[in-house]
Write a structure and sequence with these properties.
Layout (H helix, E strand, L loop, with lengths): L1 E6 L2 H11 L6 E6 L9 E2 L7 H10 L4 E4 L2 H5 L2 H7 L3 E3 L3 H8 L1 H11 L6 E4 L2 H8 L6 E5 L8 E4 L2 H12 L8 E5 L4 E10 L3 E9 L2 E3 L3 E4 L4 E4 L6 H21 L5 E11 L2 E8 L6 H9 L2 H10 L14 E9 L24 E5 L2 E4 L2 E4 L3 E9 L2 H14 L5 E2 L10
Helix pairs in contact: 1-10, 2-4, 6-9, 7-8
The structure holds adenosine monophosphate (AMP) and glycine.
The site of glycine has 8 residues, from loops.
Length: 418
């Protein structure tokens, strides 16, 4: 079959890599892709937020199945347009993507079914929001409602910080001037990934991200500086509670409202004393969590995504290898602030490239036959091992062999589990 993947980050390189392990894939096109993806698949220039352009392209190129990587095309309704055009797609409708696009919507769904999450209030008026701060004890979490590329959340330790976050949101820094104010949840965070076909929920793995740029979880938030899978905090008992108390009731509520979720549900959890609470939902794979999951799933990832899109998850099964994967992100120095583009990266051709060792590209490009950095997060150095230590050692051995003086990485990815 002919497959089109939308996106051009490390997540999409990992998806492309996994899809190509499956003999069902005859032809793979990725739009827009990146320099690493171009080594293994065709790349196409396409406005992936324009649903009619994507549907027309898929039709012209005889694409049988589209996999949507990032959230923006989902929120823009690209999945709906493809479905209308009769093209099979992995990725939820815009109505279901509200689970990610609107924090207030997800809070309301949780409240409707009694799913555990932080107590909250929602405001679209700054004076009322400031008054709302007075009702809460510190720290207070202030969230811009809407897609904010991971940058709309402030965990305020002081009231002044909370007020500054409100001022920024109501000045329009994140587009829509709406805010959710909620209690701070204590505990350990984990990411839980489930495929949902509208009826069946199929867990496909757990991971832990490292959101802060600095070692020891210090410095500003980023898109994610590294991840590993599985996350030991997600024991079988916690997983069962998360499914029974959060995921299944909220997915049933979505179905009851006529907006079934179909695709991958990225469940952001806070776990305290074995009890999970929902921090957020995303309706796509995490980046870099996806790099770890794809490395562990390999070619069956395509079968699972096809079963999900086709409403056949009840018959699907995940065949796990009892192993561990880790992804260390190399970013341009200065990220998540200002950073240079165009610096040359050398040494990748000396590295192993197999089912246990992969360097997934994120922001990379080719210039005059040289590989250069073209974004903030640039490479996702990913390895598998029988245990996390083995996977980590393999990943950092690759990191050390990469010649990129302008790159930075955290040396402590996996510290919680090790
Ligand atoms: P979100 O975009 O909702 O995932 O928030 C980004 C990050 O902020 C999360 O991954 C958490 O680390 C943190 N966070 C969000 N909400 C809370 C909360 N209620 N309590 C503690 N930390 C939170
Ligand atoms: N790594 C977190 C995310 O993809 O949202």
């Amino acid at each position: 079959m002919n497959i089109l993947i939308l996106g051009g980050g490390g997540r999409e390189h990992a998806l492309a890599w996994a899809v190509l392990q499956n003999p069902k894939c005859d032809r793979l096109v990725v739009a827009p892709g990146n320099a690493g993806i171009a080594e293994i698949a065709e790349c196409a220039a396409l406005d992936i937020l324009d649903g009619s352009a994507v549907a027309a392209f898929a039709d012209e190129e005889s694409i049988d199945f589209v996999i949507i990587g990032p959230e923006a095309p989902l929120a823009a309704g690209v999945s709906d347009m493809l479905t209308e055009a009769g093209i099979a797609v992995f990725g939820p409708s815009a109505a279901a993507a509200r689970l990610e696009a609107s924090k207030a919507f997800t809070k309301e769904i949780c409240a409707a079914v009694g799913a555990p999450t932080a107590a909250y209030d929602r405001f679209d008026d700054q004076a009322a929001a400031r008054a709302g701060l007075a009702d809460r004890t510190l720290p207070i979490v202030v969230k811009a409602d809407g897609l904010a590329a991971g940058k709309g959340v402030t965990v305020a330790e002081t009231r002044a910080e909370a007020e500054a976050a409100l001022a920024e949101i109501f000045d329009g820094a994140h587009g829509r001037a709406e805010v959710v104010i909620e209690d701070f949840l204590r505990g350990e965070e984990a990411s839980f990934f489930c495929l949902v076909d509208g009826e069946t929920v199929l867990p496909i793995g757990t991971a832990q991200d490292h959101k802060r740029v600095g070692e020891g979880d210090t410095g500003p938030n980023t898109g994610g500086m590294g991840a590993y899978s599985p996350a030991p905090v997600m024991t079988a008992a916690v997983e069962t509670r998360a499914l029974e108390e959060i995921v299944r009731p909220t997915m049933a509520e979505m179905a009851r409202r006529g907006t079934r979720m179909r695709g991958v549900l990225f469940v952001g959890l806070m776990i305290e004393d074995g009890a999970p609470s929902l921090v957020e939902y995303n309706v796509r794979f995490g980046d870099p969590e996806c790099q770890c999951l794809m490395m562990r799933l390999g070619g069956q990832a395509l079968d699972l995504m096809l079963a999900c899109a086709g409403g056949r998850l009840a018959e699907a099964q995940v065949n796990w290898a009892e192993d561990h994967a880790i992804c260390v992100v190399l970013a341009a120095e200065g990220y998540p602030g200002d950073y240079a583009k165009g610096t040359e990266i050398r040494g990748l051709d000396t590295l192993p490239r197999d089912s246990r060792n992969m360097v997934f590209h994120a922001g990379t490009a080719m210039r005059d036959h040289r590989l250069v950095a073209a974004g903030g997060r640039v490479l996702g150095v990913t390895a598998r091992g029988d245990d996390l230590m083995a996977a980590r050692d393999r990943a950092y051995a690759m990191v050390d062999a990469i010649d990129w003086p302008d790159g930075i990485c955290r040396r402590d990815i996996g510290w919680r589990a090790l």
